[in-house]
Structure formats: C-alpha cells, structure tokens
Design a protein that fits this description.
Elements (H helix, E strand, L loop, with lengths): L1 E5 L3 H12 L3 E5 L14 E4 L6 H21 L4 E2 L3 E5 L2 H10 L5 E3 L17 E4 L3 E4 H12 L3 E2 L3 E7 L2 E6 L2 E5 L1 E4 L5 H6 L10 E9 L9 E5 L5 E8 L2 E7 L2 H4 L5 H19 L8 E7 L7 E6 L2 E6 L6 H14 L5 H5 L2
Parallel strand pairs: 1-2, 1-13, 2-9, 5-15, 13-20
Antiparallel strand pairs: 3-8, 4-8, 5-7, 6-7, 10-11, 11-12, 14-17, 14-18, 15-16, 16-17, 19-20
Amino acid sequence: MRVAVVGAGVVGMSTTAALLDAGVEAVCFERSGVVMGERSAGSSRIFRLAHADPDLVRLAARARDGFARWAERAGRPMVDPCGCVVSGGDAAERAAAMTAADAAFEMVEPGSDRLRLPATVTADPVLLDPEGGVVDVDAVRAYLAARAGEAVVPEAVEAVEVTGAGATVRTAHGATGVDAVVLAAGAGTSALAGQVGITTPSALVHHFRVTFPFAEGVDDLQSWIDSPADGLRTYQHRSGPGRWSVGGTLDPALVAWEVGRDAAVAASEEVLLAYARERLAVEPRIVDGLYCTHVPDAGDGIAFRRSGPVLAVDGENLMKFAPVLGEILAAAAVDGSTPAVPQLAVR
C-alpha cells in the first residue's frame, strides 16, 4: 500500500512516521520544504489534560503516553512536566470534564502558593492540571525528522483527485498515484479538501506570539491559560531558560485576515507589550516572535472528514495530540475508516 501525506507539520510528520513503522510506503509532501516550519514552528507549546470535553481529556492522556514513548526512543524528554494553570473562563467546565475522565486536578484560590507564575492570578476559578506542562517542540521536530524525514518531498501539492479506488496527487513536477491520501496541511487543507468534496473551515486570522526575558531569571514556572472576565485572554509558558512566551486573543478587527500580516503582527506586539508592562514580572521588551494562522473560534476540537480514499484532519492546538493523532490517521488511511474522537478517546 502507498499513502500520500500532505503537510509536514507535526501531525503530518507523526502520521508519516506511524505509517513507516507499520511497513506502509509513505510520501509526505511539504510546500515549504521545511519540516514543522509553519503552524508547528517554534520551540515550545503548552501540553495539558485540561479540556472542556471529557473525550479530549482522555485523548490528551493517550497523547501524554505517546510522548513518553517518543522520549524513550529518542533518549531525551519531550514534555516538561511543570504543570498547567487554567484561570477564569471555562476552568470550572474543564474541571467537570476532568472529573468525568478520572483525571487528576486541583482547584485552588487565585493567591495560592501552589501557583508558580510571573504574575498574580486575578481570574477565578483556578484549576491546576498537574499532568500539564510544556512540549519541547525542538525535541519533537528532531525526533520526527529522524524517523520520517527521508519520506518528505519538498513540493507543493496543487491538486488531489480521486481516481478509481485510489487517488492522484499532483504537483508542479508531476502526478503521483497512491492508494490513500491524508490531508494534514494546516491552512492549506481547505482548498485541497474542497477538490474532492470535503468541506473544512476556510476562514483564517493572523496570530502572533511574543517572547520576553525574565526579569529575575526564574525558571521553575507552570504554563498558564488565563481568561479573565475583563481584560486580555492569554496563554503563557516558559519557552527556554529565562524566556517567557505570551499569546493573546486580540480584538478580531486587529487580526482579521484582510488587515494583512504586517499590521496584525504590529498590533499584537503593541497589545502584548502593554500587557507585559502592566501584569508580568518580565523585562518589557520583545526578544522573539512566532507568527502563524488560526481558524477563528475553532477551540480545541478535532475533525476528521473523508471522501473515498482521501481523509482530511483539521483543528487547532493539535501539537499536544501529535503522537496519538499520527497513529490514528495512519491506521485510518490503511483501513479506510473515518475516526471519531469519542471512540478514539476510550481505546
């Protein structure tokens, strides 16, 4: 069997690696030629069990075990188990979901000494996810590149067609016939999926995360998702020694697709710098930034859609599910099934 994976982000690469492990011939097309260079770029991401859906909590627990297996094979840690704090917003709903999924957590007061953050938590309630932490994206990238990098073809896929029982993937350099296709192309998935009758979200907004140096070099910090009733909603985590990264949910008018990347980045820098000056114990200067695109209001959901031999996956914040998503998509590509999170979460 031969399977084409479109997109060498973390989901595409983990799928390619899982296919190769299963003895399946796999080719992974990446338009940029760079492994994990777009939505999967950067050095770090938040890992958490804390979701508002019990099935996603269970799926994240499966992914945590997958990261542990990757770490054992790579000989280096994949997740810093520093814990994750969720304050305000849907923290209570996440607590209920974690209870339903039998996942450990604590509810603490905003001023609790259990919190290790470069700011005072003001939003209530506050959930502490002890299994949360920070994914070492550099370690994941190195591991997946070693496992699946030789299968990556640096070509942009222009068309996907269903041909008989299989499919044809077309690039500027020619056509490749395969038995199945997995579309994991991030922002590029919608256009390709539409060619075979699969509808996925197509609207995009700009997103820009910034990094500040610690004011006092404190490194023993938890990751943090903060949704106050008033004020900026943020996600924050340590992204290296003495480095603290912050992303925020800005006014949609500032990051809408039509405003352009440069204007959205400039607006994000202004808002996040003002936030850091007011709220955070960091040096208020930006030392790094990470740009990507998001589907607005997508939340944490994962969707799998199929048309014949073509399977598309879309969602936001998929880095934390990468090990289990790769296994799921590889198995579905081989057996022709369409995965569904509720069934997958209990396996």
